[in-house]
Amino acid sequence: MSTATIDLAHDHDHEHHGPPKGLKRWLFSTNHKDIGSMYLIFALTMLFAGGVSAMAIRLELFLPGLQLLDPDLYNNLVTNHALIMIFGAVMPAAAGLANWMIPLMIGAPDMALPRLNNLSFWILPAAATMLILSFIVPFFPGGGTQINTGWTIYPPLSVQVGMSMDFLIFALHMLGISSVLASINIIVTIFNMRAPDMKLTQMPIFVWTWLVTAFLLILVIPVLAGGVTMLLFDRHFGTSFFNAAGGGDPVLFQHLFWFFGHPEVYILILPSLGVLASVVPTFSRKPLFGYSSLVGAMIAIMIIGMVVWAHHQYTIGMSLGAVSYFMIGTIIISIPVGLMIFNYMATMWRGAMTFETPMLFAVGILLMFSFGGLTGIMLAVVPADMQYHDSMFVVAHFHYVLMPGAIFGLFAGVFYWLPKWTGHMYDEKLAKIFFWVNVISFNVTFFPQHFIGLAGMPRRIVDYHVMFTEFNVLSSIGAMVFGLSHLLFLYIIIKTVRGGKQAENKVWEGAKGLEWELSSPPPFHSWTTPPKLAAS
Amino acid sequence: MSADNAPERRHKNLRLAWILAGVALLMLLSSIPFWRGLLEMAINGVQ
């Protein structure tokens, strides 16, 4: 990879004009660092919005019976928590990292299409407004019923919901356009803007993960767009794509949704696993164990991940041949995912490891994401899934996949690169406190949900049997601590942005890569002259 | 400078961007005609 020595004789520190002043700098920005920062701030805001709805859900489930929320509002919150977290928090945060780091890592002066970059970002606040409106319009006179479908918006229920569903469909269209435009930009940047002598096989793994993710987005987001467009037509223009009474089939929507929805899981986790490829070698002080096997694994995940979608729908009554295929395919995908995990473990093996906060998150990810992967194999097995389906076990499983696999990876990336972005070291002590509180409370929240799920507690139901009380109390206490712990994360970020010990250019002793050759923070315009890579 | 503005590079970037946009459009459209039979059923009723 591109961790070769750099020819520093080249001028890459042009400051012939600085950033524009005031609001213009942000509204009309074409600078990848500014746009990256805006993505990250937006994602953090949405993380708190999605977190508030999660805490409301867990407060309701603290005890059996109806406590705070009526069933419709509960279902509304379940829906908006998922959509806000996926489309508002994780995807924009990953895009923020991509914007900040890809040009720095490949020696490009900026993204290939800077104006498109601006557009991709500024669609997001408008889409988020529509998304949030879809949850609150039912509270206004004439606003119709609340969205009670969950994030999967299955018909026929989604056809019957009031106008809030139209807001949601419009929001999904806008979010999809933003994602596709950003993906196009990322792919073009990676293919066309690399430093002249950087081959594809020399790129950092983080860049590779984003290349694969961007292709996945381009391939699957339009299918979601097609599905929700058909839903819109069923709702307003008299078609019956998903209406059995009119000759349609509601299961068709499930296929379209999960053709998008399953690769979406990899879209969420791949960039974070790419962050680990920078963090683990740095703090193990060893080169990455297997570069080409990691790249191969990612490509395998992309291909296999696109053809196993129906394991989310085992209970719809598919043929034996179909369920067998989807079961085997799903189990096979654990091989390349396992390859990535073992690659990182082998990188750590006999390394001179230190455990700064990014590394703590990396180790946490390997442990907890692997655990989520194991319960995923349980769910992949058809007869077992018939029992687990739609239970709290599924909730526990996908939170063990997505919290460590996506969000902890983003935390690792933020702590790893924050000194580079801001020029200040973060407070390591506070960051470690955040890690431990966050990880312990995460496990207190979600580990018990495996057991209440196996014992029969269904998900997406506002009330539950009294026999599940103890574990739900535990889970809710964990969730409150977990949610509030993110205020500490916010404090650490603000504190670091405002000041702190000056960061060196190469912040971490074991770090390698082009980004560490630039100053901390990097100049507003970096790599105006492409860097020259010495022979690796 | 916010990007490499060399015309040749710019042309190359835009060409690839349009190709990728075409792929996205193809995925969008392929998800709809694939189910055209269902649309026909929806409009004409089950024959």
What does this structure look like?
The complex is a heterodimer of chains A (536) and B (47). Chain A has 536 residues and is an all-alpha fold. Chain A has a single domain (34-517), classed as Cytochrome c oxidase-like, subunit I domain (Cytochrome C Oxidase, Chain A). Chain A has helices at 23-27, 32-60, 71-106, 114-136, 157-160, 164-192, 205-236, 250-284, 291-305, 320-332, 334-348, 357-380, 382-388, 392-422, 428-454, 469-498. The radius of gyration of chain A is 23 Å and the shape is globular. The termini of chain B are far apart. With 47 residues, chain B is mainly alpha-helical.
Attribute tags:
heterodimer, A: 536 residues, mainly alpha, Cytochrome C Oxidase, Chain A, 66% helix, 0% strand, globular, B: 47 residues
Q: Which parts of chain A are unreliable, with pLDDT below 50 for 5 consecutive residues or more?
A: 1-15
CATH superfamily of chain A: Cytochrome c oxidase-like, subunit I domain
Number of helices, counting only DSSP H or I runs of 4 residues or more of chain A: 16
What is the β-strand count of chain B? 0
Q: How confident overall, as mean pLDDT of chain A?
A: 94
Summarize the SSE layout with pairings.
The complex is a heterodimer of chains A (536) and B (47).
Chain A: H1 23-27, H2 32-60, H3 71-106, H4 114-136, H5 157-160, H6 164-192, H7 205-236, H8 250-284, H9 291-305, H10 320-332, H11 334-348, H12 357-380, H13 382-388, H14 392-422, H15 428-454, H16 469-498
Chain B: H1 7-31, H2 36-44
Q: What is shown here, in short?
A:
By secondary structure, chain A is an all-alpha fold. Chain B is rod-shaped, with a radius of gyration of 20 Å.
